[in-house]
Amino acid sequence: MAKKPRLFTIGYEKTPPAPFLDEVSAAKIDLLVDVRAIAASRRPGFSKRQLAAELDTQGIGYLHLRGLGTPKDGRLAARAGKMDELFHIYAAHLKTPQAREQMDELESIVRSGRRVCLLCYERDAHHCHRQWIAEEISRRTGATTTDLIVAPTI
After folding, report:
1. CATH number at residue 117
2. 3-class DSSP state of 108
């Protein structure tokens, strides 16, 4: 009987790079999948190139699936605290060709048996679009999902 796939999620809000990377390493993640629309951050160490380079030193791959990120109007709704609006916008976004294609790509990666972790900013996965992604991948693959949480230090 095939082993059930595992999927992890993590947010870096209020977390410096070192404890974040320690948590990802401790979970034995093979591939960190960045699901931010814009893989840039004001937080040192969390922009695409810096993060990918640091992960590489620990033998962890990095993949940016921009098409699974929240569109601008959804990010604006989130900043305004309009979570119902954010999720309405994001649900519509998931029907776009790019999002469907990248969801299929992610499904294939998870089915391959690699330990995959979805990355976004929001610390609490239940307040983040990555939860929707995880739920869809779990529905498709039967994967169990674990939300990694790093104790805030900032």
Report:
1. 3.90.190.10
2. helix
Q: Amino acid identity of 135?
A: E
> Does residue 1 lie in a domain region?
no
A 10 A CB-CB count for 87 gives 17
Per-residue pLDDT in tens (0 to 9) along the chain, 154 residues: 568 899 999 999 999 999 999 999 999 999 999 999 999 999 899 999 999 999 999 999 999 999 999 999 999 998 898 988 988 999 999 999 999 999 999 999 999 999 999 999 988 888 788 999 999 999 999 999 999 998 777 5
Sheet of 31-34: strand order equals 61-64, 31-34, 116-120, 6-11, 144-148
Parent domain of 131: 7-148
